[in-house]
Every structure is written in C-alpha cells, then in structure tokens.
Hints:
- This protein is 31% helix and 22% strand.
- With 130 residues, the chain is an alpha+beta fold.
- A five-stranded mixed β-sheet has the order 1-2-5-3-4.
Amino acid sequence: MAQYYEAVGRRKRATARVRLMSGSGNFTVNEKEGSVYFSRISDLPDILRAFIAVGEDFGKYDVSVKVLGGGVTGQTEAVRLGLSRALVLINGDWTSALRKNGLLTRDAREKERKKPGLKKARKAPTYTKR
C-alpha cells in the first residue's frame, strides 16, 4: 500500500474526503473519473487551482475523493478545500501560498433553518389590515 495524505473538506452540506498520493495524475471522485463526475466546465479547473497556487505539477499525484451530500457547487468547493489541506500535509511551506489564494478558508455559510410562523427562514406571511 502506497503512502497517502488524507484531508477532509466541507462546504454547505457537502463533505469530501480527499486522498493524495504520488502517481501519474489520476483524479477519481466516487469511483468515477474526475472530469465525468464534475461535468461543468469551470469545476475541475477550480478544484485544481490549489496545484497552480503552490506551483506543483498535477501529473505527479493521484487524487482519490469520496464526496457525500450537498449540491454540485458545495461538493466542488468541499473537494477544493480537502485538496488544499492535503497539500499542506505534504509540505507545510505551501500554507502561505494557499491562504493567499483563499484556498484554506472554510466557508461556514449554511442554509438558515425555517422558523415556525414564517414561510421561510425570515420571510413572513403577507400582512393584511382587514
């Protein structure tokens, strides 16, 4: 078994467990090819921004991701955060470069819960005078 670096990334309701090991540039997400799983044009380059930020070649690593919950954007950003955290485990000197690009900050915004008596989290029913 080859050594790997594992990190967890979260965004909204999505959780991604990212494993990074030396290899030949394979990118698999939930047992599928990365470009098949993230079919939107901007998703894969957004995830791989972490490699560009540290000046490392993506082809030197195999990335294996298990992602659960959330939607497409939440999953994309969860994988991006997990990948950035895994890169920091490989080389701690990359922390400042990743932080400068905003890749190590966990976006904590989540959907606010609905309150009783309201239609949504904050939207109140229409007021009628009579």
